[in-house]
Amino acid sequence: MRIVFGISGGIAAYKIPQVIRRLVQRGHEVEVVMTQAATQIVSPFLLQTLSKKPVWVKDFDVRRPLAHIELGDWCDVMVVAPATANTVAKFAGGLADNLLTATFLACDKRKVIFPAMNVKMYENPLTRRNIEILRSVGCEVYEPEVGELACGYKGRGRLPDEEVILGVVDRDPLKPLEGLRVVVTTGATIEPVDPVRYLSNFSSGKMGIALAKRLYALGAEVLLVAGKTDMPLPAYIPSQQVRTTEDMLLTLQQVMARYDVLLMAAAPADFRVSRLSEEKIKRSGTLSLDLVANPDILATLHQNYPTKRLIGFSLEMKGGEAYAKEKMVKKGLDAIVLNMVSPDFHPMGSDENEVTIYTASGEEWRLARLPKHLVAEKVIAYLFLGERE
Fold it and tell me: Which of 43, 109, 175, 342 is 20 to 30 Å from 353 at the Cα level?
């Protein structure tokens, strides 16, 4: 992907070199355009070294006199981070008084803007109006984060961390899944036994998070419903965290009306205690717990939403293929993804996975062991793009 990366003169510009470095590492071509004020915060030479391309500051540069037009024609996406209140106002007003604003005006590609400024400047009605103007003409303007600002104030105005910027920017410009609305579940649910103990499993949430990231990267609208995970949820994808299996079912029942697909990669606990102890259970020679079955999330959702596309995951050992196919039919699924536990491999908690997909139409597709982010790419390509390798 070809990216024009604009940097205006906010103190948050110090975060951008690492973003540029990682975009280049991912195989993107990056051309950096800076305002004069931005050069006082971060070195153009540093950015040139990281991007491996000349950095553009002055319009009508003798090296490329029409850079503001050529860059807009060349790129797939134009990103501006940080975007100061001044630069946002210029964009909204259609001004072209420096190379960055002129390039923005001449660019008719996807535009992604990350405002960052003092909280009072951000909350000023004029800034809010300018942001809404930009959104109304198709710009993607992302809310800054809340926190301690460089000026000493606390509030909304911080530039998001690099993971957020990378996740938002690194989307397929063609957005082949645009318009598709998908709920992805991930992680393990927990079932309290007493105030300090619970029943759960070894699910890390890595597979579900990788699937959600890939769907988002291809343009889908994604909601991540997460139980306990070993890694943070991507801040650029809307999420809801749940605790128990019943919590997860209730959340899904509430949200599925506005989504098209459920990708059930979570590992809900199958059982809960029949009676929760209000006090910490003391150590004794033996302890018996009376367990009752939790509701079957997928089967329940199939009854409540028979027209929705439901895709399940199944973790099995011996007889896994038969069990997975039985689950698919019993729960009314469109497809099921089988993970197998063997003496030499356990997918839960691992950075790798190997899966077999079965579909209700009788298709079967096996995928050898790969890192989970690559498994996610191939599973999404198979299930949503019809790619059959």
Answer: 175
- Return the sign of the alpha-carbon dihedral for residues 210, 216, 221, 223: positive
70, 107: one domain: yes
- For the segment 111-135, what is each residue's pLDDT rounded down to a tens digit? 999 999 999 999 999 999 999 999 9
> 232 and 107, same structural domain?
no
Residues 6+ apart with CB under 8 A from 377: 214
Q: What burial letters (b/e) apply to 28-38, b meaning 16+ CB within 10 Å?
A: bbbbbbbbebb
Question: Could you give the angle at the alpha carbon of 279 between the alpha carbons of 277 and 283, nearest 5°?
Answer: 90
Burial of 171 (0-12, 13-18, 19+ CB in 10 A): buried
Question: What is the 8-class DSSP label of residue 9?
Answer: S
Side-chain half-sphere CA neighbours of 60 within 13 A: 3
**Nearest alpha carbon to residue 229 among 206, 248, 252:** 206
In a domain, 39, yes or no: yes
How far is the C-alpha of 269 from the C-alpha of 163, rounded, in Å?
Answer: 30
Joined tokens for residue 218: 């291809």
19 and 84 inside one domain: yes
Same structural domain, 218 and 353 = yes
Q: What is the DSSP letter of 313?
A: E
Catalytic residues: 151
**What's the rounded Cα separation, in Å, for the pair 244 and 200?**
9
157 and 60 in a single domain? The answer is yes
Give the domain extent around 49: 2-169
- The domain spanning residue 310 has which CATH number? 3.40.50.10300
Spatial CA neighbour of 328 closest among 293, 292, 302: 302
Nearest to 263 by CA among 251, 252, 277: 252
- pLDDT, tens only, 201-259: 999 999 999 999 999 999 999 999 999 999 999 989 999 999 999 999 999 999 999 99
Domain membership of residue 174 (yes or no) is: no
User: In the block, which residue shows the tokens 């940097």?
Assistant: 7
Q: Are residues 328 and 237 in the same domain?
A: yes
Give the per-residue pLDDT at 388: 73
